[in-house]
Model the fold of this input.
Amino acid sequence: MLPEPTVERLSRYRRILRDLHGSGKTSVFSHELAEMAHSNAAQVRRDVMLIGHSGSPAKGYEVTALRTAIGDVLDDPALSRSVVIGLGNLGQAVVGYFGDHHSRFTISAAFDVDPLKIGRENFGVPTFGMEKLEELISAQNIRIAILAIPKPVAQEIVNRLCAAGITGIVNFVQIPLRVPPGVFVELVDIAATWEKVAYFSRRRQG
Amino acid sequence: MLPEPTVERLSRYRRILRDLHGSGKTSVFSHELAEMAHSNAAQVRRDVMLIGHSGSPAKGYEVTALRTAIGDVLDDPALSRSVVIGLGNLGQAVVGYFGDHHSRFTISAAFDVDPLKIGRENFGVPTFGMEKLEELISAQNIRIAILAIPKPVAQEIVNRLCAAGITGIVNFVQIPLRVPPGVFVELVDIAATWEKVAYFSRRRQG
DNA sequence: AAGTGTGAACCCCTTCACAGCA
DNA sequence: TGCTGTGAAGGGGTTCACACTT
Done:
C-alpha cells in the first residue's frame, strides 16, 4: 500500500503527464516533472519506484508509459462512479466540476431533499430524493460518496450510506463523522484550509 | 512556528469547542476532544502544549479558555478578509458558504469576467470586473485570495495578485502556480482527493 | 483513580548521495 | 556527462510511558 502523500502526488503527476502528452512531449526527466509538480527530483524518482515503474538515464520517463503505470495503480473501474449527497452550492459546484471536465470520474446521481431539484438534471446528472439512496447505490454498485449536506443530518445519512455499501467518502461537512471500520473518509475542510493559509502567510512575512 | 498538521487540528478543535460551548459544556478532557476530532488524547495534549496552553488533571481543559488560546494563535484581524477570484460554480459555492455561516472570515469582494455577474451581489458579496483587482486589494489591504478560475488564466491572475500584495492563496485550480517567495499557496484538489479516497477505500477492503 | 505535561522512542516520509548506466 | 535507481541518513510529526497533580 502506497503512502498517502505518494498517492496524492501520483494523481498530480498524471494530470501533468496528460498535458505533456497533449503538447507532444514524449518523455520527461524527473527534475522536469518535479518542477511542474512543485516537488523535487528525488521525490519523483522515489514515487515512480514505489509503483514499480522505471525510466532511463537517456530519456527519463516515457510520458505514455508512466501515465499507464500510474493508472494501473490508481484506477479501479469499480470505484470510478460516485453519488453526490446534497445539491447546495457546494454539491452543485462538485457536480458542475466533474460534469464539465469529462474525467475518469463519473457522478451517477445526486440526492437532495428539495422537491424543486428532484427529478431534474444538473450538468447531466439526475437528481433523486433521499429515499432512493439505498436503491440506487446498490443497483449501480456505487462505492464512493461525496457528502455536501448540512451538519445536522450528516451523521444519519452517513449511517445509511455505509449500510448501503459505500466504502469511501469525500466529506465537505465540517463535522467528525462516525463510520464503521473499512470505510475511508477524507475531510475537505475549506475553513481549516483558510486558517492554515492565513497562519502560514503571516509567518512567512517574518 | 507550528507544524502544519497542528494548525489544521487546532482549527478543528476550535470548531468543536464552539459546539461544546453552545451545548453548555464548560470543560473537556483530552480524550473527549480527541474522539470528537478523530485524533487521540496524546496528540491533543501535544497540540495544546505547543500553543502554550494547559489544563488540569481534574477538569481537563476549560472550553472557553482553550478557544481563546487557539484564537490567539490562529487569528489575525489583518488576515480575516479575502477576495474570491472567479464566480463559477466553485467560486459561488465558496461565497455562499462563507456568506451563510457568518464566520470569522469575510469575503470582501468577488471578481469575474462575466458582465452579467459584475455589479451584482452574491450572498452580500459585491462582484467586480477583473480590472478592479489591484485597486480593491490595496484599498482594503487584502492579503488572502481564493482562486477559482479556469486554468489558462490562472498564472496571469496569480502574478497580479502577488504584485498587488496578496500573501496567501487558497488554490482550487488544478495547476502548479508559480509564486514569489513569501507567498503561501494551499492547493485544494478535489480530483486528487477523490482518487485518494478511491485508492484507500479499495485497499481497506483487503 | 484518572488525567495532564512532556522527554524520549518510534515511525514514516523525504532527501542525500552515489553506484550504475546510456 | 547527466540521469536513473536506491540504500542509507535525516527530519519531523506521532505515540509511548510515566512522573506529577488533584
